Amino acid sequence: MIRINNDFSYQNYYNLLYTKNINKNTKHSSTNPISFKSEQLEKFISEMKDLEDIHCPLCGVMTVSQEKYKKLIDEAGNIKTSQEFSKFLERNKSYMKNSFRPVIENSKEILAQTPDITADTLLHELYIKSIEEIRKAISDSAAYLDIAKQENNFSLKDQKLIDECQNALKNYQKADRSNFDINTYKELLSRIISQMESTNKWEIYEKLKFPVVEKMQSTRQFFYNKNYEFCGNREQQFIKNILKFSQSNIKQIFSEISPHIDERINYMLMCNNCAGDKKTIYKIFYSPEINQNLKVYQNDIAKKILEEKLTDFERYPLTLASFLRTATKGNVKTNRAGRGESLIALNAMIGEQQRQEIAFEPVNYSGIPCACCGKETINHKDKCKIYDEIISAKNLSEINNILQKNQSLISKRNKPLLKKIHTTLKQNPNISEAELLNILKDQTANSIKRLLIENNDRIKYLTKKYELNNNDKALVQKFTQTIEKEFLTFNNSERFPFSDYINLIKKTFFNMNTQKKFHFISLAKENIKLKYLSQSLLFPSETASEKLNSQIKIIAQNLINGGLATVDHLTPKFKHGANSIENLTVMCRDCNQEKTSYSFEYWYKLHPEIKENLQKYLYKIVEMIKEGKLKGYNSYPEKLSENVQKITAGPSEILLDYDCTINF
Asked: Do residues 403 and 556 touch, judged by C-beta distance below 8 A?
């Protein structure tokens, strides 16, 4: 029997999952260990610092390791001519911030006109060119204010301040170059902009500040920096100045994270410029470039792991994105599209290692009920036999017969698809594959839309039921309107934009003040993922479809594949769940795919049917042990029961009392 205390709180789970709500009084003991000791963290950081040619995950520049930096500076010390200087810049431009790269093109233009000038003269000409670029940036900022006036309904006071700012910028543009100073420029802007009444004033300030300050920062590098060791010549000094920004640095992302999370995930290798930026975390949360730059960074790190240059944490690039996705409430995307070759290879390597590490005999048998949903599972060998039957099917009716014969393997969420295939073919046996596919897509898409309407109506009802403040009401109203305008209108022939929907939920309800927000979150998410997973089956990869010359055959195979017996870790591996048998169960692929990295106690609360199905699973295991099929597993049922009790002895207090004594 399984006894459960129903006093469950989404708040508790949220506090565990999200990094910003941390119990600072958590004690690290044998039951709540620190995952990795400080010396292992030091080893990880040490290895990361030595990695060469890693793109910064924030700005995308190629970082320069300490050793590489010294080599480049020594090489720069041997530059004798302007041509050598220009070629050096071109050869190493990947290590230069984007704001410094105009120097490369400028040097080429100058040398094309005056090829015989000295390196010192070239540097002077480049400096003069950079001053011109500062003046141009100031002029563009003044022109931007005209656009700002058109886009905003400024008060009379703000209009006067905008005019004052424009005049100040025009005068500053004409000033002597010695007056071009970052602090002076920022003070000029803040003195005027801070007096404005508009809520957009600081957005305007940033747009005026950034391009000019960036140009000024570039110009600074032509001079000796007192913080840097003096070099032998001006060319070497300039190169040392600009490469300092790209030197690799290990940045701790959050000051504190949950003790349940591997602390090494909280560190990233990035360029000095981003690591020293006070807005680094802001960039991670809101930068539109973070997703693409992060994928490049992941692939770079994966390549170093494959080359055995980073040996201490093989899963780092794979788990980092998931960690950031959670911490940034979905701003960081973790979709597989666009993954580099090294990351794909690393993922495959780790998957193979896991398969070799997990010697869990029950997964090799067909007929074991899923520990979650209770449906029959099938082993890989038997699954392949059914796959071959599907491949050999001559028409849609034969495919339907195969599916009907094996419907016990198909999950509850996919049964509507199975039923629709059967009824459609019964009514119209001669229907084409394309027509059948369109009917299935219409059914799943309309099912999602109906659920969205139901959830939206219930959310509106809750808004009236609960006494929400005006801000919370506005957030909910915007959410329901967005659902009606954007999500209910998606094309039935396309995938439902699930990730966008989840991001909308997070951006809406996580910003509410009421403690009832977790009720709203639960309601908005209810069953949507299941509907989406079913719909996703109708969009098989082009490669697989072309190989069989049939999308329906791939869909049929995927329906069967949902019943494949897979190994599930009660405590997920990335949370340091062991491969020992007490942490392992057989779960169908559908449930495993849905469960992902949820903790067992939370998953149990979402699926109370586990209470009955886990017992069915254990009865089957005991039966197989008695039959002599599972040798060496006599203690498994009892160990699994004890582990379930152990790992759920927290807020949900799940206790599994099950007599697993085996009598022979």
From this structure: yes
Cβ atoms of 598 and 570 within 8 Å: the answer is no
Which pLDDT value is given to residue 157? 93
Give CA–CA dist 277/279, Å, rounded: 5
**Predicted TM-score (pTM) of this structure:** 0.55
Structure-model confidence comparison of residues 537 and 654, the more confident one: 537
Instruction: Name residue 608's amino acid.
Output: P
Neighbours of 139 (CB within 10 A): 14
CA-CA-CA-CA dihedral for 641, 647, 653, 657, to nearest 10: 10
Which H or E element spans position 585? Answer: strand 584-588
Q: Which helix (H) or strand (E) holds 593?
A: helix 589-595
Could you read off the pLDDT of 434-464 as tens digits, one per residue? 999 999 999 999 999 999 999 999 999 888 8
Q: How far is CA 605 from CA 411, 525, 584, 654, 656, in A?
A: 19, 15, 19, 9, 14
Write the pLDDT tens digit of every residue in 610-645. 888 988 999 999 999 999 999 989 999 998 988 887
Distance CA 245, CA 62 (A): 11
pLDDT, position 642: 85
Q: Are 640 and 618 in contact (CB under 8 A)?
A: yes
